[in-house]
Amino acid sequence: MKYFKIFILFITWTLLFPQHVGGDLSLVGQLPRGEFAVQEVPAGFGIGINGILYPVKELGFGLNLGYSVYGHSQRQIPFNYFTDLVSITEKTTNEIGYGHLFFRILPFHGNIRPHFEGLVGLKNLSTTTELINNNCTDNADTEHDDCQIAESTNASDNAFSYGFGTGLEVKLTTLEDENGDSAGELLFFINARYLMGAKAKYLKEGSITFSDPQDGPVETSFNWTESKTDLLQLSIGLSIYF
Fold first, then answer.
1. pTM (two decimals)
2. Does 242 or 3 have the greater pLDDT score?
3. Which tens digits make up the pLDDT trace of 32-84?
4. 85: which residues sit within 8 A by CB, 6+ positions away?
5. DSSP classification of residue 15
6. β-strand partners of 148
7. What's the rounded Cα separation, in Å, for the pair 154 and 152?
8. Integer CA distances (angstroms), 126 to 15, 25, 97, 207, in order
9. Residue 231 has what pLDDT?
């Protein structure tokens, strides 16, 4: 939700300064590389947002934000220690959030436009666990719903991130203002980024284990992993340019 709010703010910015900006929204797939892949971290999927300011048409400077999930698990557990007649869902999610400053070079401005990028920023690897009511009404029209009972962050660590990317934009249509004059362009794009990442301490799918309930109160064990966090990101989405 916070990334969506940032995107709305960016759209407002484009309306105020339309001649100098662009932005895009994409679906992102990420593939671990190097030590990250050796640790058998699974592929992840998420969304990405870019906002770009163009001092000149051939060069832009921007902010990249994104979020992806690289593993999750869930199980049914008794509501409390004294009875198993009522159960709830325990859901654990492994996530990567990231933010980068970047520059983008667009040497050509035809209907098909290759671009090249350099990025620097941070990744955050986190694991959260939530307890969910199995009989709930998740109503978006109300301020609160009765699905989530509790939530806790099990792990969170930041890693310095930097890399490079390349992509291709294809013009779909010209946007017009109320007078019929050209006001911008809508484009389809594909993009690939290789993001090197410093070492981080994190949990992955299968890193959390539990003792046998028959032996007494359940005890949780965390099997931590520490490695570099290189990623190959593949994106596909829509871009707008004013």
1. 0.82
2. 242
3. 999 999 999 999 999 999 999 888 888 999 999 999 999 988 888 888 777 77
4. none
5. H
6. 132
7. 6
8. 35, 23, 8, 13
9. 97
Cα–Cα distance between 40 and 205 in angstroms, integer? Answer: 9
Amino acid identity of residue 14, one-letter, is: T
Q: Residue 101 above 70 pLDDT?
A: yes
Cα(80)–Cα(59) distance, integer angstroms = 59
In this structure, how many other beta carbons lie within 10 angstroms of the beta carbon of residue 205? 16
On the question of pLDDT at 178 being above 70, the answer is: yes
Q: What angle do CA 185, 190, 191 make, to 5 degrees?
A: 115
Distances (CA, A) of 78 to 136, 216, 241: 16, 14, 53
E strands present in the chain = 21-32, 44-56, 59-80, 83-105, 112-132, 148-176, 182-197, 200-202, 208-210, 220-222, 225-227, 231-241
CATH architecture, range 2-241: Beta Barrel (2.40)
- Write down how long the chain is: 242
| 192-211 pLDDT per residue, tens | 999 999 999 999 988 888 87
Which DSSP symbol is given to 213?
Answer: G
Helix (H, G, I), strand (E, B) or coil at 38: helix
